[in-house]
Write a structure and sequence with these properties.
The protein is of the alpha+beta class. The chain is built from six helices and seven strands. A hairpin with a 7-residue loop joins strand 2 and strand 3. The radius of gyration is 20 Å and the shape is globular.
């Protein structure tokens, strides 16, 4: 009986060590980080999910983006989506991408600017400078539909983290985009 308990304890210890040695996770923090706080956009439903390199790949028509992300040291990220009916904003997508190094994060932001058409066809870009962050404002054209509302995107790098924020709705503006980006933890 004593030998069986010792064997069971040894097996449990070995399993715990194996899980710890393997990391037990993809290196991404267990709790969402770097995205807008859930209370940042009042009145809209909120959903949060992990963001893998394959998820980011889906946002671009560039076939090699997932491979590039790995080369830049992409660790993982989060996406928080706010959506609903509002006279201010109807859709807000806050993404946080974590890289192993600051140059990796900066390379992603530069790539997104260089290949903006693969993310947002026919979009125009302008420089975005905020205290401690630099990046781009991306403005895709309106869809030409009746009651179309503006879509604005901000992508900035700060250290090893990229903040990627999309806002859409009747009051979407560069000023509001910048205000919300300033609320994302860097």
């Amino acid at each position: 009986m004593k030998a069986a308990m010792a064997a069971a304890a040894a097996a449990a210890l070995a399993l715990a060590l194996a899980v710890t040695a393997c990391g037990g996770s993809s290196g991404r923090p267990a709790a969402p980080s770097g995205v807008l706080p859930a209370a940042a956009v009042a009145g809209l439903a909120v959903a949060t999910q992990p963001l893998t390199s394959q998820d980011v790949q889906k946002d671009s028509t560039a076939p090699d983006l997932a491979t590039r992300l790995a080369g830049w040291g992409y660790v993982g990220g989060w996406q928080r989506t706010f959506q609903g009916e509002s006279r201010r904003l109807t859709l807000v997508v806050s993404r946080s991408l974590q890289f192993r190094t600051s140059p990796g994060a900066a390379r992603f932001v530069a790539y997104m600017h260089q290949k903006v058409g693969s993310f947002y066809p026919f979009a125009v870009t302008s420089r975005l400078s905020m205290p401690g962050r630099s990046g781009w404002v991306i403005q895709p054209p309106l869809c030409g539909c009746h009651m179309a509302t503006p879509l604005l995107v901000g992508v900035t790098a700060r250290g090893r983290k990229v903040s990627w924020l999309e806002i859409n709705g009747p009051q979407a503006s560069t000023r509001l985009l910048t205000q919300l980006l300033a609320r994302t933890p860097a």
